[in-house]
Amino acid sequence: MGKTFKKPEALSDNHTHYCPGCTHGVIHRLVAEVIDELGIRGRTVGIAPVGCAVLAYNYFTHDFQEAAHGRAPAMATGIKRVRPDLIVFTYQGDGDLASIGMGEIVHAANRGEKFTTIFVNNAIYGMTGGQMAPTTMPGQRTTTSPFGRNVEECGMPVKMAELLSALQTPGYISRQSVIKPKYIVKAKKSIKKAFTYQMEGRCYSLVELVSTCPTNWGLTPLESVKWSEENLLPYYQLGEYKTPEEN
Ligand SMILES: Cc1ncc(C[n+]2csc(CCOP(=O)(O)OP(=O)(O)O)c2C)c(N)n1
Ligand code: SF4
Q1: Where are the beta strands (DSSP E) in 160-210?
Q2: Hey, where are the domains in the chain?
Q3: pLDDT in tens, 29-60
Q4: pTM of the predicted model, to two decimals?
Q5: Atom of ligand 1 nearest to the CA of 94
Q6: Going by CATH, does the domain composed of 24-246 fall within 3.40.50.970?
Q7: CA nearest neighbour of 54 among 67, 41, 44, 63
Q8: 97, 127, 136: residue to mutate for ligand 1 pocket, most atoms within 8 A of CB
Q9: Angle between helices 102-111 and 72-82 in degrees, nearest 10
Q10: Is residue 70 within 6 Å of ligand 1 at its C-beta?
Q11: pLDDT per residue over 177-195, tens digit each?
């Protein structure tokens, strides 16, 4: 009997190190499916972040580089400028991209660097044990905000898709989610669009993906989906925030 469901060629056979209910694996699969469908595996380079996805290079069968914390956009800029024929993407968490790497991502997007960013927003620092991130929700308890995020002291959570889409330089900026199948279908379409714009040499592209971190949220995988849908999605509204056609 033929296989009806198989692993994309862009994904390796390695066993995952991600926690049960973590959406990093779902996002890896979506990226790999898009790479297969676009036929670009032989010329794709991913840039791994510092964060739980630091080991992303173990899961993809195309080339990968590792960047210092938050510096993936600088590495992607260098690779893409030297080899514009390559398809380059950074894979970054919210601690990596919106905290230590905030300057890097804003300037790369503003320069209109022609690579793609996959931005995983799980509202917390996962790898280091659950500290508050720029994206942590008001009142959300973390190891560094044990009484909940205090917006008087820390401000409101940073909305990266909105912030980057305010730049005048043409780009593709979208926010999707991967917590349920109905969101995953749209997320994949957006990731494919982002890579396609890059293939056409059009613009910088970023897809933010509202995710989960059951381990550091202290919830079960199912509770995490519910918490994400009830607390993150009303604040981090899904949709396409900027398209190159609008510019
Ligand atoms: C220069 C530097 N500062 C701090 C750290 C510690 N550190 C490692 S991962 C991380 C945060 C990761 O969080 P996020 O980017 O949200 O990814 P997640 O683990 O949630 O996927 C931090 C602060 C580091 N490795 N290097
Ligand atoms: S700590 Fe959180 S982000 Fe990291 S693998 Fe576990 S669930 Fe995923």
Answers
A1: 171-177, 204-210
A2: 24-246
A3: 999 999 999 999 999 999 999 999 999 999 99
A4: 0.98
A5: 16
A6: yes
A7: 67
A8: 127
A9: 30
A10: no
A11: 999 999 999 999 999 999 9
